[in-house]
Amino acid sequence: MAPTHPVDVIFPCLDEAAALPWLLGRMPESYRAIVVDNGSTDGSADVARTLGATVISEPRRGFGSAAHAGLLAATAPIVAFCDADASMDPADLPLVVDPVAAGRADAVLGRRIPTARGAWPLHARIANRYLASRLRRTTGFALTDLGPMRAMSREAMLSLGLTDRRSGYPLELVLRAGEAGWRITEVGIPYSPRVGRSKVTGTLRGTLNAIQDMSRLLAGATQVGGFSA
Ligand SMILES: Nc1nc2c(ncn2[C@@H]2O[C@H](COP(=O)(O)OP(=O)(O)OP(=O)(O)O)[C@@H](O)[C@H]2O)c(=O)[nH]1
Ligand SMILES: [Mg+2]
């Protein structure tokens, strides 16, 4: 049966119950929220269900694991991704969705614009700027950030066959899209301090894991033919 909604928005969710009410109240009309509960112990799944979201459960931990489960559950022609920690406003989703819907881009990534001190710690900003410069050289895309809000065609994304299930998933997406010849553009998206305790960027372990996952992917990319490092 054809989906009745044009966009599925995938929210990977690990213990974000405090952020969900604001988040799900900010959905653009006709977009569907898919909350992928990644083993939360704070009742996130019940909160999301009560608020009318489609909830799926992915017990295997990892950002990529949750994001990919959401992709597999989606049915709309366009999928969008947004963190579930209220650092980005779902009302801004049309900024990444509309150029894809209009056929002007195969994927649009949201470049983070911090709205307050502390929204985006300095070490994370420096790491992302470095990552974006590596990505520019590797793929030729004019990217300045690997932002967490993005949109693209569901079927095109599925065809990339992404395999990372941890924090390298968004990077693998851009590397594979580069190989596939996609047109990727970037738009500015306001980025605010998250609701709830920081899990990745604000913690040493999370940051080190992310750097490890991404370095492995970038090292692989420069060895593969078709990429000029
Ligand atoms: N860290 C982490 N996040 C997950 C996981 N599964 C789902 N998520 C969700 O993925 C999104 C991004 O994670 P965040 O913890 O916000 O990562 P971040 O923005 O780099 O860092 P902080 O906001 O400082 O924690 C959030 O909505 C999480 O709830 C997982 O296994 N680990
Ligand atoms: Mg966050």
Strand order of the largest sheet: 3-2-1-4-6-5-7
Oligomer status: single chain
> Strand-and-helix sequence, N→C?
EHEHEHEHEHEHHEH
> Which structural class should the secondary elements be placed in?
alpha/beta
What is the number of independent domains? 1
Q: What is the third-level CATH name, the topology?
A: Spore Coat Polysaccharide Biosynthesis Protein SpsA, Chain A
> Main β-sheet: number of strands, strand sense, barrel status?
7 strands, mixed
Q: Total helix count?
A: 8
Indicate the low-confidence ranges by residue numbers: 223-229
Mean pLDDT: 92
Radius of gyration: 16 Å
| CATH C-level class | Alpha Beta
Beta-strand segment tally: 7
Shape: globular
Q: Cα distance, first to last residue?
A: 44 Å
CATH architecture classification name: Alpha-Beta Complex
Q: Which distinct ligands sit in these coordinates?
A: guanosine-5'-triphosphate, magnesium ion
In short:
By secondary structure, the chain is α/β, with parallel strands linked by helices. It contains eight helices and seven strands.
Features:
229 residues; alpha/beta; Spore Coat Polysaccharide Biosynthesis Protein SpsA, Chain A; seven-stranded mixed beta sheet; 18% strand; disordered C terminus; binds guanosine-5'-triphosphate; binds magnesium ion
